Amino acid sequence: MSLFDLTGRTALVTGSSRGLGRAMLEGLAEAGATVIVNGVNKERVSTTAAELRAKGHKVHEAAFDVTDDASVVAAFNQFDAEGIDVDILINNAGIQLRKPMVEMSTDEWNKVIDTNLTSAFVTGREAAKRMIPRGYGKVINIGSLTSEVARATVAPYTAAKGGIKLLTRSMAAEWAASGIQANAIGPGYMITEMNKALLENEAFDSWVKGRTPSARWGHPKELVGTAVYLASSASNYVNGQIIYVDGGMLAVL
Ligand code: GCO
């Protein structure tokens, strides 16, 4: 069996009814995993699940709000009741808010931190509670270029993604001895709905293409290889790392 084969494993990807999460979810399914679609919108989750089933993949649906502690706890209790073992967790759910800090309310700040950082802790905690006794688990947190560097007007997103980098190391510190590998992926500027305003802004589009050695935006599917690697036995001795899939942007001035 290939090192990268996920047959027999079950993967939950939060925020996976579209965007980067959808691409990684499908990639894990193509590598043999049973996948669990998650999102807050039940309709969108069901639509995505149907699309993946039509391609022959094994799919569960779990529409819950990762920012609501009780909903996450209830979701994992439901997985237990249905005999679903989450072997692989990708904490992907996230939102963006582009606004200068001096114009931002504390509620706006908290919403981004809750969705992009705290949710990874809560969902990771519930997954790890089940992974630890099994002696196996893969946790993959989705960071960003802003896990390393800042850009004006995206402060809460940046603070959250910086936190993701060190939360990943904290997970490795506490869970590695139990056979769990916790790592992160840092996507560069990707072609997603969240980045639509940036893609349509000629000046920003030119800046990304000029600032990125690969001279282009990334495609969500270009995260799949790294996601499958970190979800598979090929990475059993990799822990606490963040792998940037950014066309080289962070490697150069
Ligand atoms: C922005 C973008 C970025 C990208 C990505 C870069 O407004 O600068 O949304 O944050 O989405 O996170 O790695």
TrEMBL record:
One matching Pfam family, short form? adh_short_C2
PROSITE patterns in the record, alphabetically?
Answer: ADH_SHORT
The alphabetized UniProt keywords are: Oxidoreductase
GO MF, one term, reads:
oxidoreductase activity, acting on the CH-OH group of donors, NAD or NADP as acceptor
Judging by the UniProt lineage, the source's domain of life is Bacteria
Q: Which family does the similarity line name?
A: Belongs to the short-chain dehydrogenases/reductases (SDR) family.
Q: What is this protein called?
A: Gluconate 5-dehydrogenase
- The organism named in the record is Cohaesibacter marisflavi
